[in-house]
TrEMBL record:
Catalytic residues, chain numbering: 34 (proton acceptor), 174 (proton donor)
Lineage of producing organism: Bacteria, Bacillati, Actinomycetota, Actinomycetes, Motilibacterales
Pfam families: Ribul_P_3_epim
Protein name (database record): Ribulose-phosphate 3-epimerase
Residues reported in the UniProt entry to bind substrate: 8, 65, 141-144, 174-176, 196-197
Organism, scientific name: Motilibacter rhizosphaerae
Classification via InterPro entries: Aldolase_TIM (IPR013785), Ribul_P_3_epim (IPR026019), Ribul_P_3_epim-like (IPR000056), RibuloseP-bd_barrel (IPR011060)
Pathway(s) where this gene product acts: Carbohydrate degradation
GO biological process: pentose catabolic process; pentose-phosphate shunt
Entry GO MF terms: D-ribulose-phosphate 3-epimerase activity; metal ion binding
PANTHER family tied to this protein: RIBULOSE-5-PHOSPHATE-3-EPIMERASE
Residues annotated to bind a divalent metal cation: 32, 34, 65, 174
GO cellular component, one term: cytoplasm
Length: 225
């Protein structure tokens, strides 16, 4: 298990997204793009046309996190627009398997996101259909919220289920992750780290990425090194 860093551009300068991604290009692995529709979450960000242009302009692959209603209808289009990973929410989707297959059929990785109150167990048998599980460590919608320690037991359980499935799924965490909390999530089994304000709230986002990566690597369970 190596640590993957997927900084979120939610709190970056939306008038210069290409430039903002450029600031982390040498220090991050992916860029996490939060798509919010103002319905599934009470915030509105960007959609398909912007993702399509970013996919062409970005030096990092796009990891699109869809916080939208009806992802069954829209998720495959994000894969077609060039996102290399498309994650939709368990609470919003009607047909998770079909949607995951449609994403994969378009050459992207398929992710399943779980809100803090959503248990992972009902999805245990479906994990083989996915490339990633995203465990939210805040209520989705806004950056800069405090990390929810109450989600850690579910994160550990998700790691157990992934390991038991024998699959190669990534385990992503999103929300309130920074130097104060990364150790907790990595110890609990996360290998793919979203960080928004911890990166873009810093005067030097690339340096913030490097510090986060070093802290995450140091916290990796010994057996996984
Ligand atoms: O999905 C979301 C918010 O819903 C995130 O990706 C945020 O952008 C994370 O920001 P921080 O909590 O790291 O500031």
């Amino acid at each position: 298990m190596t640590i993957r860093l997927t900084p979120s551009i939610l709190n970056s300068d939306f008038s210069d997204l290409r430039g903002e991604i450029g600031r982390i290009a040498d220090a991050a692995d992916w860029v996490h793009v939060d798509v919010m529709d103002g319905h599934f979450v009470p915030n509105l960000t960007l959609g398909l046309p912007v993702v399509e242009r970013l996919a062409q302009a970005s030096p990092l692959p796009l990891d699109c996190h869809l916080m939208i209603e009806a992802p069954d209808r829209w998720a495959p289009a994000y894969a077609e627009a060039g996102a290399r990973s498309v994650t939709f929410h368990a609470e919003a989707v009607s047909a998770p398997l079909r949607t995951a297959r449609e994403i994969r059929a378009r050459g992207a990785r398929a992710g399943l996101a779980l809100n803090p109150a959503t248990p992972v167990e009902p999805y245990a048998e479906l994990l083989a259909e996915f490339d990633m599980v995203l465990v939210m460590t805040i209520e989705p919608g806004f950056g800069g919220q405090p990390f929810l320690d109450s989600v850690l037991p579910k994160l550990r359980r998700t790691r157990e289920l992934i390991d038991a499935s024998g699959g190669e799924l990534w385990l992503q965490v999103d929300g309130g992750v920074g130097l104060q909390t990364i150790e907790r999530v990595v110890e609990a089994g996360a290998d793919t780290i979203v960080a928004g304000s911890a990166v873009y709230g810093s005067a030097d986002p690339a340096a913030a990425c490097r510090e986060l990566r070093a802290a995450g690597e140091a916290a990796r369970p010994t057996a996984a090194r």
